[in-house]
Model the fold of this input.
Amino acid sequence: MKKVILSLVFVAALTVVSCKEKEAAPVEEVVTEEVVPAVEEAVEVVADTTKAAVETAVDAATEAVTK
Done:
């Protein structure tokens, strides 16, 4: 019985909270200002890591062939 009552209270709370109208920035602005720089930084890190891994693999393959 407690679960049912708590579930109803939770749904009622969500209903009250969701009725507020807030003026928010358009989604495109948020994506452009916050996400794009983070993605660019992540791409640079992945590129550097990939480059290092490829160089290590090339060195290992070259060493294996010369032996």
About this structure: The longest helix spans residues 27-66. The chain has a mean pLDDT of 75. The two ends are 75 Å apart (CA to CA). DSSP finds two helices and no strands in the chain.
